[in-house]
Amino acid sequence: QLHSDQDKGDGSLKYILSGDGAGDLFIINENTGDIQATRRLDREEKPVYILRAQAVNRRTGRPVEPESEFIIKIHDINDNEPMFTKDVYNASIPEMSDVGTFVVQVTATDADDPTYGNSAKVVYSILQGQPYFSVESETGVIKTALLNMDRENREQYQVVIQAKDMGGQMGGLSGTTTVNITLTDVNDNPPRFPQSTYQFRAPESMPPDSPVGRIKANDADVDENAEIEYSITEGDGYDMFGITTDKDTQEGIITVKKALDFENKNLYILKVEATNTHVDPRFLYLGPFKDSATVRIQVEDVDEPPVFSRPAYIMEVKEGVPINSVIGTVTAQDPDAAKNPVKYSVDRHTDMDRVFNINSGNGSIFTSKPLDRETLLWHNITVIAAEINNPKQSSRVPVFIKVLDVNDNAPEFAMFYETFVCENAKAEQLIQTLSAVDKDDSYSGHQFSFSLAPEAASSSNFTLQDNRDNTAGIFTRKTRYNRHEMSTYFLPVVISDNDYPIQSSTETVTIRVCACDHRGKMLSCNAEALIHPTGLSTGALIAILLCIIILLVTVVLFAALRRQRKKEPLIISKEDIRDNIVSYNDEGGGEEDTQAFDIGTLRNPEAIDDNKLRRDIVPETLFMPRRTATARDNTDVRDFINQRLKENDTDPTAPPYDSLATYAYEGNGSVAESLSSLESVTTDGDQDYDYLSDWGPRFKKLADMYGAMDSDKDS
């Protein structure tokens, strides 16, 4: 309540309130000065209010004393329960952790005044989660309370924590939160096979690296703690089988490493071991983290193709052996217990010429055609062995047949020899050295002997000397030779080898007699030139053909240019650029023919029709040529020509190839005057044409025509 000393109780004063919440939260009785709150006050919303009060004259409104300020403080009561910072907490710890291992810390706050009583003093306690976990009452730290908690037994725990104010005393307010605790895995469990023995079957036809079966050891752990490595530790199939780990399923895959053979061994016993790859040393006291099992693999019999005794066969045969000679034998057997009979055949794709054949019963290979080592040294064929009862069961083997050499080829010259001898040659002069080759093979090297044929040994003009090094020299026997008497000599030479049987051949050397200089250089021969006939090469033929084509193209182009030039304007000569004489070969129709040509234009250039177009070229423009004033009759011909030449040179409408200009002006003042009788039509006087009779027979017709006209006039 507010009261002023000036208030006499007569109602002349009134009280006014201003400040925080005045008129809304706080109101004042203007007559009595009582201050009241309009609603419940919350300290947590606003703990202090500052108000100002004043007493004023009700009639004048003037203050009767200075304004007073006062503070209202809200005293706290325990009206707020503790609130956790999270509704739900999530935490995890490794399994098998020691007692007292820190898990997580929870925190709760109280909005009440911590300085006033115990309203804001919070104490933590566990409502759910014992005996596994505990919480510190002052800090809210949650710890493990039980030893060796195993994830494999229980993985998830839900703990409820309570926070209570008033120091946990009776009447205090409280709040709760939930803590979800997960036990993470550690490698505390070794792998274990669910059974001690496994049985598998594998057909003997199974190729290497094929899977036989799968085994799996169980591990209660997860993720990397459950990773297992499988291995074969012992057994009679240690080198026949292998095992790998499927990383996705952690299974052991048993595979075949080598080909199986039921007839050789039909049962294998293996010992397989499963071991953890990530071992935790803290739990080694629990025992070895591995386990083993026995695997029995039964090999099943299948119908297999025949098997050859060798992977490949190499045989040798001499060339020229008789047909049906046996070269060698291949052998194949059925590996199955039934021992089915086998038949043999030659794959004809490898022996297209059918040079060899095989006995289908015993596998002996024999020739069916003659063999020649010089034609083909090696023959590579394939032999097929198939079961008679089941031909689909077959196998193949390569057979390499080498043809051995037999001395069946005679030696021959290494090249074609054609030599010459000079007319002035001296006796015992070397003119040619011979060498030989042999298609046969010689293990110790070829040794050839050379000699003249018996029919030429005594009568020949030349001698032959064997050099004992597989070469021989031809020497002259006499001093001089005459090419006019004998231009060519043919010298037969016998070549023999030293193999068995001895082979020999007779080769002929052509020797020409030629004229030589003093140094022995050949100049000329009477007979054919000492050259070998040679043919044109493909390149030379192509070059000749190209030259012919180029020549034909040149002729065609030249003819086309000639034809094009004929279509051009008549004036093509450099000397006749502006002046030409055009012959029309028309003598006209006489004096009465007034349509052929107006001869008056020769005398009067002004009479030229300006509308006439040029006839030597196709008109290309509609502009009419510009003309200057024409020369008068008294103008010299040279001036006239120069004037027209200037006109044509400066005419912009003339095409650049203009080459024909008409200068139809015969000049003026000729001593002989005009010789044309056609001009008589423009004169009024009579003329005498008797002189035409004196001009000869060519002017007889004119003389008759004009003489007759004079006669008519006289009559």
Automatic annotation (TrEMBL):
Q: Which superkingdom, per the lineage? A: Eukaryota
Topology versus the membrane, per the UniProt entry? Answer: Single-pass type I membrane protein
Spans traversing the lipid bilayer:
540-561
Q: Which UniProt keywords apply?
A: Calcium, Cell adhesion, Cell membrane, Cleavage on pair of basic residues, Glycoprotein, Membrane, Metal-binding, Repeat, Signal, Transmembrane, Transmembrane helix
Q: Which PROSITE patterns match?
A: CADHERIN_1, CADHERIN_2
Instruction: Cite a single GO MF annotation.
Output: beta-catenin binding
Q: Which residues form the Cadherin domain?
A: 4-84, 85-193, 194-308, 309-413, 413-523
InterPro entries, A to Z: Cadherin, Cadherin-like_dom, Cadherin-like_sf, Cadherin_CS, Cadherin_Y-type_LIR, Catenin-bd_sf
Record bears the keyword Iron: no
Q: Which Pfam families match?
A: CADH_Y-type_LIR (PF01049), Cadherin (PF00028)
Gene3D superfamilies named among the record's database cross-references: Cadherins (2.60.40.60), TCF3-CBD (Catenin binding domain) (4.10.900.10)
Cellular compartments annotated: Cell membrane
Q: Which GO terms describe its cellular component?
A: adherens junction; catenin complex
Q: Which GO terms describe its biological process?
A: adherens junction organization; calcium-dependent cell-cell adhesion via plasma membrane cell adhesion molecules; cell migration; cell morphogenesis; cell-cell adhesion mediated by cadherin; cell-cell junction assembly; homophilic cell adhesion via plasma membrane adhesion molecules; synaptic membrane adhesion
Q: Does the keyword Magnesium apply?
A: no
Q: What does this protein do?
A: Cadherins are calcium-dependent cell adhesion proteins. They preferentially interact with themselves in a homophilic manner in connecting cells; cadherins may thus contribute to the sorting of heterogeneous cell types.
Question: What is the name attached to this protein's record?
Answer: Cadherin-6
Q: Which organism is it from?
A: Spheniscus mendiculus (Galapagos penguin)
Q: What is the lineage of its organism?
A: Eukaryota, Metazoa, Chordata, Craniata, Vertebrata
As recorded in Swiss-Prot or TrEMBL, the protein's gene is named CDH6
